[in-house]
Amino acid sequence: MRLRTTSIxxxxxxxxxxxxxxxxxxxxRDQVSIIQADxxxxxxxPGPSASAFNEFSALGVDIVKAQVMWRDVAPAGRxxxxxxxxxxxxxxxxxxxxxARRRGLRPYLSLGGRAPDWASKSTCRGARPGTCRPSNTLxxxxxxxxxxxxxxxxxxVDMWSLWNEPNLAFxxxxxxxxxxxxxxxxxxxxxxAAGRKGLSQSGHGGDRILLGELAPLGSRxxxxxxxxxxxxxxxxxxxxxxxxxxxxxxxxxARRCSRAKLRTNGFAIHPYTARLTPSRGxxxxxxxxxxxxxxxxxxxxxxxxLDKVRKRLGxxxxxxxxxxxxxxxxxxxxxxxxxxxxxxxxxxxxxxxYTSARVKxxxxxxxxxxxxxxxxxxxxxxxxxxxxLRFATSGPFVPDFGGRKPKVYDAYRMPxxxxxxxxxxxxxVEVFAGVRAKRLxxxxxxxxxxxxxxxxxxxxxxxxxxxxxxxKSFRLSGATQRTFxxxxxxxxxxxxxxxxxx
Length: 502
Fold this sequence. Notes:
By secondary structure, this protein is of the alpha/beta class. 25% of the residues lie in helices and 19% in strands.
């Protein structure tokens, strides 16, 4: 969150016969907020873009992400000099970067995802255009052009990632050989190294350039287009087995293993907790997943895997960046969770990210829902993303066109989570909250509590840390029956929570 610069306050007097415990270690004290809303920020023109960025600024967002589809900015035919910025149409992204910079927000460009036809092959069966073995050389030149263009002044960019969800056939092919041997990890390793080199050659070598952008879930299938689970994808990039021992020479040859050093300073993950497909519904932030998946609950698995392969990839210990995340809501998605449930999921997700070691960000994808379809197939109608903080501006199943989603919007503005610690002393409750808002003079929240049928009484007034969060523990009688009320002195927003056992 883009908030105040104050530190956690000291312990003050407490009431109603409780003893305040020491605050837990703040694993995410520097956690920042990212938001991505491509439709509003650059696809619909200047008016919607300015409006979206104004809202992001008011919400205290730190970073705004955009997917720069290579084929969308490239000419139809191969240019004489693919490394020249003049060869590409940057106009929509110029608007994006300027709108971010003028409001004090950090623009973040994710390059690639789909190559132009002249930079990719057409030999991958069933592959979408631009996803079959993109040229490493031409991608390096594209990244070089992007880096040259976005250098200095209002157009300066210093945060990047290279490609999107390379463990999905929707974005990169082939995922596997006809015999089921993983191929995409080595293809992506070379692509990343090439793009990283292009950005470095344009003077952006010291920027934040994230590796990964992986989808969280794999598939049990082994066909050419079967998705690779993220932890297996990382091991394959490093050319190691499940036990982290090197692959044999024959196995490396079959995979065309790359030894390219991956000079990177962060790893990006999209830790959704369920497949975003019609009729699947949501799973909560603590949903279980298979061993090689990397959903929100299992960020520790991801961290340990990255640490074990870092020498083979040529990386250091990496921070983990959540760069795409959210939950489908009903309305409008008839197969998903209620608005109240999604609000609870967002609250706990923010807490999990904040308390997970080396996690650097939390992401909201998107601002507005995708419109629901009107085809005869109810399943196809919900193929879009209904993850937004606002309802779609058109389509069926929308109670308030473009309006804020009740409870969901509030949970994003001020996430609050309270839990009863199972392994600690009886009655010990941890309360966590964050406030997203513009920088204001004060930076405090008040915490009150009440038993059923009794008035609220003040526990503490807490100063937020420099990113707008706090995390405090209290020892209270009747903890399972209590309601906690957290009030922002900046925005006046109030959230009520019951503690859950975790």
